[in-house]
Amino acid sequence: MNRSLSAFLTAIALLAATATAQLGDDPKRKKDEAVAIKKKRVRRLGQVLGDNLQSPDNMVDAIAWSPDGKQLIAGGADGTLQRFDTKSTKQLGTYPTQDAGCAGVHFNGTDKVWISGRKGPIRLYHLDGKPAQGELAFKKAAGIAYHFRPLDGGNRFITAHGNPEVCIWNTRTGEQLANIWIGKSPDPEKRSYIELLCVSPNGNRIAAGRTDGAVCVIDIESKSIVQRVKNDGEKGIDALAFVDDKRIALARNNEPELLILDVKSGKTKKAVDIGRWWILALARSPDGKQLAAATFEGLWLFDTKKLRLKLKTSCYSGTVRRMCWGPDSKRLATGMNDSSVLLFERSAFVKP
After folding, report:
1. Which of 124, 158, 314, 333 has a CB 3.0–4.6 Å from the CB of 132, allowing a cystine?
2. Domain membership flag for residue 264
3. Residue from 74, 89, 109, 39 nearest 327 by CA
4. DSSP per position, 162-183
5. What pTM was estimated for this model as a whole?
6. Would 300 be classed as within a structural domain?
């Protein structure tokens, strides 16, 4: 792994551990979580990984709902994957450990699931863990796959690599349809890696956030970069999500501000000051009406039209690593840095 990237990931893990010690392990929050679980406002689906709770290899790195909202699958940084029943919270099954960790997981209908390891390949499994289709090999020159997202309901995939480049693949054949370079230096020691990846609601564009804080917006059909926003400072990006087809929400390292990027103009402005702790994850609801922001202090729900804070909660302990809305836009699942998976009902949130 590139030395600068390794140092960056280590620093983030240490910061997360420090904040968790100060906030996530707070006795009051643990008590609030216990009450919320008892009243079924929050459901703890179990732990995906082992017992070394603060290890960087013990974090939930990927999480996805089934289309009917009845199941949830989570993958860990060590490559372990588990599937849960979202109503009973029971574990339904496990899957083969992925090499070098899990880059992404997505349901294919309700009876199959796509899983990608960080070193590839992309595999399609039946729910019982048996392979459903041959492996789709990554282009080896692309290096480790840091992110993986489906397009067109799974007919195509996008992967983000350490070169850095974004690749588009044909699901059925494994053919590489495009590779789009978004870096700024051929020198491995000076490269900026892709830190985050998201797809616009209409499925036409990809936003890629680099470790140097720059954001590139790619038009999928033309396979070209339509907007490139540089970062004047040296801070990378902690969270990235489309608010709608014209706006992108983002948060930079160690900054408690929600920023909004206008895709057409390339201009960024501050939308909300979250508080004293920075934003860890962002997620837009499937109905397009809500934007969830996770911080060390709690979960915040904003309306996407005017980005006004509507609801919030802090009734959980630990630190959010990944976040994903249920298909009904009423429930929110989080993958935590202690390897656990939490499911938040609407009743877990209160007005600020």
Report:
1. 124
2. no
3. 109
4. SSSEEEEEETTT--EEEEEE--
5. 0.84
6. yes
